[in-house]
Each structure stands twice: as structure tokens, then as C-alpha cells.
Amino acid sequence: MKDNLEQLVKENRAAFDDKIPRPAVWEKIASTLNDKPTLHWAWKAAAVIFFVSTIGLSTQIYFSESQDQANNSIAEAGEFKAVEDYYFELISEKKSLIYDYEAKDIRIDQDFEQDLQKLDAMYLVLKEEMEANPSKKVVDALILNLLVRIDILNEQLQELDDTDDDVNDGEVNA
To answer: Whole domain around residue 49: which residue ranges?
Structure first.
């Protein structure tokens, strides 16, 4: 049946194009159009409410995540402080061992002290960066700086041990 109606419309299209509906038909269409603006405004109001609530929820989620990140930063800062304290204590012990060699009149390499001063300066810059923009990368860089210092101190201690052994071997043989 649908195919028959479609076929009829296709065959008689030209005859339908010049026809104009009666005024009563247009009045009925116009009256139904006048009823729809209230529904149209209802959809607009629903869209505005949806938009506002979406923005409100997005903002709430954003600030909630920001607060979580701040809390994580505080927790990480506490963990970093413990790591920092441990490494500072280790560095202090190694420095005191090195300066004990100086008391024995064993010459300490000046490049070693300059390297430590440069690392200290870099550490201060990184520490300022962490206070301004805390991030995992900055914390990792700070820890790496401390580890490099410990490595330099260990190398210096090894050199001083070797020098001390040579001096003691020379005294024993003499």
C-alpha cells in the first residue's frame, strides 16, 4: 500500500505542486504552531538548567581534584622531608670523615669542594622551584642532587683512603 501511494505521488508530482491548501488547513497548522512555543521555551529552560548544572558539577570536580592534589603534595612534602633529612645526615657524616683526613694533613682536592658548592647552589634553586611549583619531577631532581653529592663524597673518601694507605705504607716501609 505504501508503495502504491509513493508511486502515485511520484507520477502526479507536477499536479500536486501547483495546488494550494484551503485557508482552513493553514489556520489549523498556524494554531498548532502557536501552541508549541510554550514547549519550545520549556526545552530552552531545560537546556539552560542542564548547562548550568554541568558547569557547576565540573567546577566542583575541578576544585575537588585540585584539593586532592594539594593534599597529595603535602603528603609528598612530608615524605620528601624525611628523605631529605636522611640524606643530609649521611652527607654530613661523610663530610666530617673527609675533614678528619684534613686534620691528618692529607690534602683534599679543591675540585671536590667546588663541585659540592655548585650542587648546593643547584639544590637551592630546585628547592625554590619546589616551593613555587611542586611536582614529582622537581622532587626527583632534588633527590638526584643529593645522591650525586653522596657519590662525590664517596669518591673523595675513596681517594683519601687510598692516599692514607699509601702514606701509611710508606711510613711502615721506612
So the answer is: 22-173
